[in-house]
Design brief:
- With 404 residues, the protein is an alpha/beta fold.
- Helix 7 (136-147) runs antiparallel to helix 12, helix 8 runs antiparallel to helix 9 (167-177) and helix 13 (245-259) packs across helix 16.
- Strands 1-5-4-2-3 form a five-stranded mixed beta sheet. A three-stranded antiparallel beta sheet has the order 6-7-8, with helices on one face.
- It is 52% helix and 9% strand.
- The relative contact order is 0.13.
- It has helices at residues 10-23, 28-33, 39-55, 71-84, 103-112, 125-129, 136-147, 153-163, 167-177, 184-195, 207-210, 212-224, 245-259, 278-284, 288-295, 303-311, 321-339, 347-353, 361-378; strands at 59-65, 88-93, 114-115, 230-235, 268-275, 380-381, 384-386, 392-394.
């Protein structure tokens, strides 16, 4: 939760908050300080995070909503909640560089944007660098990599990483853990040099087929390092709609590894933010159920289940008038802190100031901030006038500034 009583960074933090809201760009700071709206879904999300922490229960959820109605803000709120629960958090937006149909590229971006609790910058490799070859964590991870994954590549890679004294080899092996995958032959060569024995893969690793091993490996590693779980936040999920027919179906198949509990990595929960129009525009508009029957007639699952989840995703409901008023009063509070003044406006006055902002929540917020800006700079906005005590009065004819 945001601490607005920290006088040391008081004005700076409030100013940052107002400028972030004015720009319309969601941020983690805004997510921390504006988390009270939509109490029902927040209770549900808090319960899901609690299940991860207590029982390592995995799963996923699709957050559907209209443009500008707070999907990204909700993801930022989840980011802060998960971090407060001592969970590792990854935050990515789908794009050409982060495609859901190519899991190895998706993994690379996820790892690059992974945050440890209470860290402002991504990165966790320094935690891996602290693991010694004979530590309990190293022993557990080697046993897990050898027995629990589809391939045993990560067993040989981790063992080599922990035992090599060659800085170049260590860099290459660490880069592999970050998604820049080393060739099997190169890994076998390094392993032979260190241990003077061959690495006998039970299954030859290919990044297009076995990348899920890396997600499972990392989720287990985070638990061994003492964290309570792993939350993956995926924004702009609707960009899957731009993929070709087969690529889009493959993207749905990959989503199953993060939505269906029986397929998810342990203690991992993934939230996908999706446009409310996706089902109509893509699933129905591009005939995805028919495409599935055509392309994968003998293997419809788990793609069909994911399509059902996408089609039936609950949509974020618009904030109620009371919830909007609470947000606007909070914005008034921050505006006063940011610019060292004391506005004292009613919720009705602030609500009226947003009527020119249209129906989108973010544009309503911008309109309210512009209204407060005018009152702060000129003492008036429309028919609303602020007196010396910051209290509002109304006049049909607004007097000149000299009268104040």
């Amino acid at each position: 939760m945001c601490d607005t009583k920290n006088t040391l960074n008081y004005n700076f933090e409030a100013r940052h908050m107002i400028e972030a809201l004015r720009s319309g760009v969601p941020s983690r700071a805004v997510g921390a300080c504006f988390s009270e709206a939509r109490p029902q879904i927040m209770r549900e999300i808090s319960g899901q995070l609690e299940q991860i922490c207590e029982n390592q229960k995995s799963g996923g959820k699709i957050i559907s909503g209209k443009y500008g109605e707070g999907k990204t803000h909700l993801l930022n709120t989840i980011f802060n909640l998960a971090g407060a629960d001592n969970m590792v958090v990854s935050y990515v937006s789908l794009s050409k560089e982060t495609p859901m149909d190519k899991l190895y590229l998706f993994y690379q971006k996820v790892i690059q944007n992974t945050y440890l609790p209470k860290r402002q910058q991504p990165g966790f490799m320094h935690e891996i660098e602290k693991i010694s070859a004979n530590s309990p964590v190293a022993s557990e991870m080697q046993v897990y990599a050898a027995r629990e994954l589809e391939t045993d590549k990560l067993y040989y890679l981790l063992r080599s990483y922990l035992n090599t004294e060659d800085s170049d080899e260590k860099f290459i092996l660490q880069a592999d853990l970050e998604g820049d995958f080393i060739a099997n032959t190169a890994l076998k060569k390094i392993y032979r040099r260190i241990f003077n024995q061959p690495a006998k893969f039970k299954v030859n690793f290919t990044k297009t087929r076995h990348c899920a091993d890396y997600f499972r490996f990392m989720s287990h590693l985070f638990l061994q390092l003492g964290y309570h779980g792993w939350v993956i936040l995926v924004d702009e999920t609707e960009l899957m709609g731009r993929l070709g027919k087969k690529a889009r179906l493959n993207a749905y198949r990959n989503m199953a590894d993060f939505l269906l509990p029986e397929r998810c990595p342990e203690a991992t929960f993934t939230y996908f933010a999706l446009s409310a129009s996706y089902s109509e525009d893509v699933i129905e508009g591009k005939h995805d159920y028919e495409n599935l029957a055509e392309v994968f007639p003998d293997q419809p699952e788990p793609i069909r289940t994911v399509l059902n989840l996408l089609s039936d995703a609950d949509q974020l409901q618009p904030l109620t008038r009371q919830e909007i008023n609470e947000v606007l009063l909070r914005i008034q509070e921050f505006h006063g802190q940011a610019y060292d003044w004391t506005p004292s406006l009613s919720a009705d006055t602030l609500a009226r100031s947003t009527q020119s902002g249209g129906y989108l929540l973010r544009t309503k917020i911008r309109a309210a901030i512009e209204f407060l800006d005018q009152l702060y700079q000129y003492g008036k906005a429309g028919k609303t006038v602020i007196n010396e005590l910051g209290e509002e009065t109304f006049e049909e004819e607004i007097p000149s500034l000299e009268d104040f």
